[in-house]
Task: structure prediction
Amino acid sequence: MKARSAGAAAAAAVLLLSGCGGQDEVPTLTWYINPDDGGQEALAEKCTEEADGAYRIQTSLLPMDAPAQREQLARRLAAGDSSLDIMSIDPPFIPELATPGFLAPVPEDVAERTTEDTLEGALAGAMWGDELVTVPFWANTQLLWYRESVVEEAGLDMDEPVTWDEIMDVAAEQDKYLGVQGIRAESMTVWVNALVESQDESILVDPSASADELETNLDSEAGARAASIMSRIGQEGLGGPGVASMDENQSMLLFQRENGSFMVNWPFVWPATLGAADEGSIDADIPDDIGWTLYPRVDADTPTAPPLGGINLGVGAESEHPELAYEAIECIVTPENQAEYFVTNGNPPSSESAFDDPTVEEEFPMADVIRESLDMAAPRPQTPFYNEISESIQGRFTPLSGVDEDTTPARTDSYIMEVLRGERLL
Amino acid sequence: MTATAESTRKQRRSSKKPRRSDRTKAEIRLGWLLAGPAFFVMLAVTAYPIAQATFDSLFSFRLTAPDERSFVFLDNYILLFSDGLFWRIFGVTLLITVVTVAVELVLGFALALVMHRALKSLRGALRTAILVPYGIITVVSAFAWYYMFDINSGFVNNWFSWVPGIDSDLDWFSNFGTAITVIMASEIWKTTPFIALLLLAGLAQVPDELVEAARVDGATKVQQFTRVIIPNMKAAIMVAVLFRALDAFRIFDNVFIMTGGDANTEVLALLAYRQSISRLEIGLGSAVSVVLFICVLLLCLLAVKGFRVDLASGTDSSGGKKQGGK
Result:
């Protein structure tokens, strides 16, 4: 009796072991993805199949907004979590994760192969200290969207570069609203940075400086000019009555309404607007009335520097399979996959050749403008202290109606410095 | 010496009631067996984190710069107490606590009286109905209130446009007055039922004979209420006020969801969250948490001293009677 039960136990153990062993032979890579329309999940499956048993990619979902994604990744990385094989990282947070050595170095050959035809803006966002620390996956940029009817009435030539002053004048004349993001959130830093960069200036004096020496450059002509644009929109109510809680989605809804005129926003608005028109929640002819061009200029003579967003892929330093992870990343970011991801999920590629895919042009008639915009786009301040800088800017530049070109930039500068030196609370 | 005293006492007790001593001992042992594990678990999950946070608060430590951790002693606290922002946030937290608890107490009393006096037959159903807001998860109710008042998706501006000061262009969450009003209203809506129930239990404890006697002595309704009923339910009031004050002082969800601290509505718990979670400044964040903890302790002490009620004996009716008799 005893012998029999012992035998059964042994058999069960063998079965269990072989069951586990069978799975263990294929290393599992965990890919922490930001929420999307299922595109990353599909890519994970596709690359798992292509790997043919070399590895298996499973996805794990990160929180909705970028700062919350950063919080989770940073906490896990700091705790030495070995499950962070592949991570979808928002570019502004890369320096903070790269500086303490939380990211496994990108092998040179992988770096070479994955950045062969990466658009310039997207590549800049993947670098830290002249070194590629993440692999560009998809890149995002804001365009200027406009209502053809409004432009026509104003007699504005949209084939020529337009300036913020022009669109503000048109909105004021026609008593319409501008779609801008006035909410106290990451989008505010995106906007301030684009306004400063469009004047060929940067918010940071020296990005590589330490916390005690880091300085921002908002108290300058460029900072004042940026503040004056935002303050005019706030004070004249050009952003609509709800501008203080206007995020990307809300400004799209505002733009779709009758009093919409211009809007700066990411390309997701195009499929979203088409979908809304299909569903009947907005007028069916609204999509026909929508045009697009490059992000507005600040000075008529200086080229624009549109906002840059997107997602790069990094590998955790504590990952047990860094080589396999980079192998998987190479599979994920092929131009074909980027093109497919763009068409299915609306997130533009970082690779130039992905734009040549015929399906891209079909689904996104503005793909050419996006490509051009990505080449001109400028990243947000690249520093390990981006979060402090961003939150300070968000706090000081909201509400828009309270922005004063004479005081706001200088106060933001000194506040950021005090916070970084540990003299003030954030 | 104590050992001998103990043994003589034991002997005395055992000579008088030998069985009971064994039982007491067994009961004590059983008590430890039953409560001991919970006691140690509580130590592990509360005392240890508190000690760790207190220790961490003496360091300058950023999660993304693990090598730069340094001992700064009380610098984090000095930074807190010397920054006007901290005092403003402290003031806002205090304002929310005082206003919500006061309003909830008045409303809760009214509800409790209605349930106690007027609608005895419906009490069971009413009690359940009244508890619904309290049963809703705070985050969910915060979202509900947020969407109600939000200028882009809310219906309040539309429905109440006849009220002076409210029109379709009113952005409730963009300035302090309106934002804090909505936050406090949602807090009050959600937790008044809790206070009402506690007070109802207190009301039920007041012996009818006392009220009757007061009436016979010629006390007016108001006198009956202020001289007989309220003193007799002091313990219940204290429990209600104490619980709610502690809860209100630690308010987080409503502010986090509705404004995220915009329009100067930031509260202490949110400040702690932003320092330790958003900024990953573990040292500074721990310091805020420790300060918050000390504030809550002080609040506790204040309430217990202020009401002069011994909770352990004050919650039963005899305690209540004694209090009332004084």
